[in-house]
Input
Amino acid sequence: MTSAPASPSPPAAIAAGDLISLLPDCLLTTILSLLPLDAAARTQILSRRWRRLWPLAPLHLDSHGLPTPTPAAISQILASHRGNAVRFHLALPRPSPADLDSWLRSLAAKHLQDLILRPSSDEPLRLSPSFLACRSLRSAEITNCRLPEDAAAAICLPHLAELTLRLAHVPSSSALCALIAGCPGLASLSLDRVFGCRSLGLRSRSLRSLTVSASLVRRVTYADELEHLVVEDAPSLERLLAMTSIGDPRYT
Output
């Protein structure tokens, strides 16, 4: 059995001008997590020690920051990275259902904390039930997506504190209620152009901030847009903001 490469001894590191190598792995992985993803990955060429550090650093994966933002690149990063995931920001036009399902399962295993889905497509992206497996989520922004159907009984996101649904399609009013009920720590909820239910009776013991936005135009075309909301039980609610929007409902 071979042991992990040791960091240089203090005298050797100082003589070589390599003071950063004196830092413990826990600090180096934190530093790596703050670098752009491609720069952090390139540190693997420095030495055997650095080769094992990047795959263990907290992962901040943003498709905007990838040199080649393709599904294959995202799959390769998630497959090679063995540490936890802090943030995942997806802005690809139309990842395949298989790719998206695989990514969400991988991120759930990496204890993902922050999720941002902004597919740049006219057609909403259908989320697989594996989205609900990300039980470590603390914040989620879901844009231009269809939420999973027939998953009400499986919703349990105990750490989710901030949720934004923008141009989101829900199966029904009861499905949206089930999603909110499955987030017992939810403190901030933003419903920005939600489709699939005309009315919603809101119940949340933890909710402190609620923002609701609906369109003043295309009411006939988008007849299933949420437009009636009743706060039935929200004893912790401190802020309620209702807004209207005018213009093209597609996300840009």
The chain has a mean pLDDT of 81. DSSP finds seven helices and twelve strands in the chain. The longest strand covers residues 162-169.
